[in-house]
Amino acid sequence: MSHHLLLIFHLMGAAIWVGGHLVLATSILPEVLKKKDPEILLNFERKFEKIGIPALLVMVITGVWMAYQFGIGVSAWFRFSNPIETVVSLKLILLFITVIFAISANFFVLPKLSAKTLPLMAFHIISVTFIGVLMLILGSFVRYGGISF
Question: Which residues are listed as membrane-spanning (predicted)?
Answer without folding.
Answer: 6-30, 51-68, 88-110, 122-142
